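Chain X:
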Amino acid sequence: MPLPQKNTKFKRGFKKWSDDKAIELREEIGLFASSPLCAFDLCEHLKIPIFVPHQIKGLSDRQINTLLNEGNSHWSAASIPIDDSNYIIIHNPNHSQARQQSNLMHELAHIICKHKIPIDKLNLGLTGFLRNHNEEQENEAEWFGSCLQLPRPSLMWAFKRKVKREEIAIFFNASVDLVGYSIIVTGVNRRLSYMGY
């Protein structure tokens, strides 16, 4: 999942909603606000089935081989609407565990934010759906996906304990880049310095 640009503009209240929703979902599962959240567990909680290419009926061995071998670096995951309120996610199991978490969180963000595909793209089937790109929706999914994986309370918890970035990344199954980005955009380091940490 690419990280949002620092100067990206969001709808008023979106960032706060993202933090609050990430905490709310953790609480629904029985986790603390600062706990790591597994994307696979969140999919199960939200009743969103996850598939990998070889589980998709109708794909030939050649197509599966293309997706998982020479085409492996060209795709991450896709959320596909079954109807107005039900989705499935197809993801790339050959990415690293941290990348899989990020990929799934991004797709979950699209679903939770109720991002819709224009009817003209949806009518083209999977091909049109996968070619749909809405910059505002992508920015929201990138931001909220990163909040789902590493919300502000998680960073506060780690910083108070002087946990290093690499250790934060391992504990929350995130990339070091995501940790660094989240520290900057949330202002956690400045906030804790004001609090005397």
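Chain Y:
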Amino acid sequence: MRDFVTNDGARLTYDDLGPAGGHLVVLLHGWSGSRRYFLRNAEKLAEDGFRVVALDLRFHGDSDKPGRGYSVARLAVDLSDLFQHLGVSRASPATVVGTSMGCAIIWKYAELFGADGRIARAVLVDQAPLQARRAGFGGVPAWEAGSKGLPDDAALRGLQGALLDMPAFARGNAECCLTLPLPPDVAEVLAAETLKAHPDDLGLLMADHTNQDHRFTLPTLSFPCLVMAGAHSGCFPMEGLMYLQDTIPDCRTAVFERANHWLYVEEPDEFNRLVREFCEERLPKGEVMRVA
């Protein structure tokens, strides 16, 4: 376990696995998770020769809960600070894997920092570009393919209230995000890591995350993307996930036919294989794959 300090003074924790000279893969967990959500992925990818850095986002895991920075934009700046700390550059870029809100961090990073060349490619796991529903206006289309559980402000307030009982929230969150059974020890780790977060922090961060509209950023992405979607996602309809395939210029998609939102935990072997093949440029642009 290592750490670094962001430009606003928050100390963030990360794991650094695998050979120092391997291609860098940065793992960004989702809202209410932690770096240990990748317990079935990080070490395996490191064994494949990648240098794997798994970060605890601020407010999560063992990282600081500084009482400021409740926005996806701040998390994107934290990613930039991590890149600087690790020496990521245009000459030595990273593959970034975002799960759920981790995708939003990648999109916001692209919006804020443009084509700076520090992201070689991105893996985007089960996240629609907008969580809330939106009415159309002018030339801006309406949006109905966002979060199944957070379509509006009333649902957001309900979630913020549910967070006051964190053990119950952790159980319900797992029921929503999992379809396939997990080994008991893995399930225990996920629940324990969720309980490291504070409900107020999670509620404030979700208020920003759920209203971010990334639809306008997707066509500008300058790096190849691999979308992974859970056919049984408890969080997003397939229409919202496939929107990425139709909108990102250089994109390919894998639909996990048996899995849910946490597909990287449910089917780690297939997830790890696809990340490896994507990094090796073995997945052709435009392909939609089915993982049975």
